[in-house]
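User: Can you recover a sequence for this backbone? Please restate the input before giving your answer.

Assistant: Of course. Working from this structure:
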């Protein structure tokens, strides 16, 4: 039980509106489950402990079918309480299956699609057992059930009649096996078992795995032998801890110098030539690309919007950025000369996965920029460029965002090198500037108190607006998203130039407006225009909070508050200007007493559409 509970602790970021554990105890299954955070289950277990057991499964839930109640929490029991099942994903044909099972006389206690899978599996188990049960009966029942299930699912099952066995299946939903010594593990990702083993096996699509203490056997849904891919996990358990910070988010904000540095590491040679051989896409194919489409959701989509400015500038390839869920449903024009770049921290975002699949079907070259090794989106793409930000546990994305910008910039420079759009010296200069970014982020972090103090003083704000131009525009939207998701404050990010086309009507006395100001050393007009925007809103009563480059004295006269960031080339500025906005949102939410790691209604990986 302790092993399962510890695994759930590490995986709680994946969903936290209820949790449960089931173990095989003697001839029966015993389970405990509770709505709310894992702490509620821990209290329940303290009040009603589970018996000692060697086989168990556990789950933390992010509700899809049925509200976050005790009854709807997993595990779900079937086969007269002898079978326990947990599930991630959505079973799309659960209503038909449920009707058929009800007609056969089965009953249900919850509103979940998971219980339908459990009852279906129990039905198959009994039918097979009637002809003679053996150690394969649970695996066979899983295989029977999977052949009827439609949708996305990871399923894990234990049965009182197979006490040493856990059987699991996956389709479009994550599942990894941990190989121990006289013990084996399963998890949605490796953090679930990283305390016990670093040897992991990545399962393929539509595979079933049966684990016992000494054996791991993989088959496909039809029962044919299959194989997974073994690899060694290079995270250690400490990397997934908070390093003494009060929250994972704060730790991850402070991880950012390392995240950017690690993402740059080993990607260029000493002569400043990009060496992205890991892409393993035929360079001739990349040269033929005449359009780039970046697909992503949320913060990752803002990283894509930042990247667009750099890629178009450096490679002269038209680049569109689209939300994955919009892309799929509008008949997009992609062909063999389109490079589709998906950006996803988790590599499991269902909307992005589906968009990548669609693009691949249309013949596009698909490249994933991803932070999670072995996850589904990179596995289903032609190539992957990993961001090396390390595990991101807090729901709000921070270090992954900066790592995504860094990785997409490397991609842009690589394409420019390949196609001859930039001189070698120019690429070398940008790489050198990127190399200086980690130290500059560290400088911002060292001076965080000023922005934290302001954030604490604004805990009562009802609405905060964010303005930016050029690469500052997606940064403004990212700043607004952070504030919305963490502090539950209404926030919007606008292109500063759009102000006079409507949003300026929102400005009234005291309205806080955060303005991301471009470097005065860049194109003059850009800086001057944003300074004019600040004057316009200030004249209408706005409380102006300005993020500007060190030495930019021109903004001081119009700002209530100025936060200076180190100098950088205009295109690299988002790697710096974002940081104070993350700190601002994190501190404001913390001062309101909110849990910044697990904001309400959100999950870290959105594995449903
Ligand atoms: O794992 P992904 O990068 O694909 O996730 C995409 C979004 O769900 C994610 O960035 C989300 O917007 C975060 N909560 C933002 O902080």
């Amino acid at each position: 039980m302790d092993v399962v509970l510890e695994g759930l602790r590490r995986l709680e970021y994946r969903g936290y509106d209820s949790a449960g554990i089931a173990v095989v105890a003697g001839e029966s299954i015993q389970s405990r489950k509770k709505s709310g955070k894992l702490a509620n289950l821990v209290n329940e277990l303290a009040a009603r402990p589970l018996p000692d057991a060697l086989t168990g499964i556990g789950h933390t839930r992010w509700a899809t079918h049925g509200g976050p109640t005790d009854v709807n929490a997993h595990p779900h029991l079937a086969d007269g309480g002898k079978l326990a099942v947990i599930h991630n994903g959505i079973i799309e044909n659960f209503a038909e299956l449920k009707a058929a099972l009800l007609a056969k006389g089965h009953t249900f206690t919850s509103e979940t699609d998971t219980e339908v899978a459990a009852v279906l599996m129990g039905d198959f188990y009994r039918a097979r057992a009637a002809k003679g049960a053996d150690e394969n009966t649970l695996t066979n029942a899983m295989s029977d059930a999977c052949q009827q299930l439609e949708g996305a699912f990871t399923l894990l099952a234990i049965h009182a009649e197979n006490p040493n066995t856990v059987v699991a299946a996956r389709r479009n939903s994550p599942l990894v096996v941990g190989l121990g010594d006289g013990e084996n593990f399963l998890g949605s990702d490796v953090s679930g078992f990283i305390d016990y083993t670093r040897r992991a096996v990545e399962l393929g699509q539509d595979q079933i795995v049966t684990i016992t203490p000494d054996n791991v056997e993989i088959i496909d849904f039809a029962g044919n032998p299959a194989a997974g891919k073994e690899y060694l996990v290079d995270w250690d358990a400490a990397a997934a801890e908070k390093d003494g910070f009060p929250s994972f988010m704060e730790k991850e904000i402070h991880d950012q110098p390392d995240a950017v540095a690690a993402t740059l590491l080993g990607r260029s040679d000493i002569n400043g030539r990009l060496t992205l051989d890991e892409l393993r896409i035929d360079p001739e194919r990349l040269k033929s690309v005449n359009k780039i489409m970046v697909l992503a959701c949320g913060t990752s989509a803002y990283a894509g919007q930042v990247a667009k400015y750099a890629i178009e500038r450096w490679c002269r390839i038209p680049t569109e950025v689209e939300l994955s869920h919009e892309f799929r449903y509008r008949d997009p024009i992609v062909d063999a000369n389109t490079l589709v770049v998906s950006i996803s921290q988790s590599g499991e975002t269902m909307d992005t996965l589906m968009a990548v699949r669609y693009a691949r079907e249309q013949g596009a070259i698909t490249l994933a920029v991803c932070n999670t090794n072995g996850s589904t989106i990179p596995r289903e793409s032609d190539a992957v460029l990993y961001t090396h930000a390390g595990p991101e546990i807090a729901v709000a994305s921070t270090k992954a965002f900066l790592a995504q910008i860094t990785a997409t910039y490397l991609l842009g420079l690589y394409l420019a090198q390949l196609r001859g759009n930039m001189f070698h010296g120019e690429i070398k200069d940008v790489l050198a500037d990127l190399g200086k970014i980690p130290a500059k982020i560290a400088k911002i972090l060292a001076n965080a108190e000023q922005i934290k103090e302001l954030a604490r003083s604004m805990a009562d704000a009802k609405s905060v607006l964010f303005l930016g131009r050029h690469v500052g525009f997606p940064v403004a939207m990212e700043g607004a998203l952070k504030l919305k998701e963490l502090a539950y404050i209404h926030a919007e990010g606008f292109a500063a130039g759009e102000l006079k086309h409507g949003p300026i009507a929102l400005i009234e006395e005291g309205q806080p407006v955060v303005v991301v100001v471009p470097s005065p050393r860049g194109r003059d007009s850009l800086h001057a225009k944003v300074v004019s925007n600040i004057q316009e809103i200030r004249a209408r009563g706005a409380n102006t909070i300005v993020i500007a480059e060190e030495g930019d004295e021109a903004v001081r006269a119009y700002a209530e508050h100025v936060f200076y960031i180190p100098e950088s080339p205009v295109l690299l500025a988002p790697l710096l200007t974002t940081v104070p906005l993350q700190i601002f949102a994190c501190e404001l939410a913390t001062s309101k007493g909110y849990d910044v790691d697990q904001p309400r209604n959100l999950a870290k990986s959105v594995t449903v559409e």
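That completes the design. Residues 17 and 68 are 6 Å apart (CA to CA).
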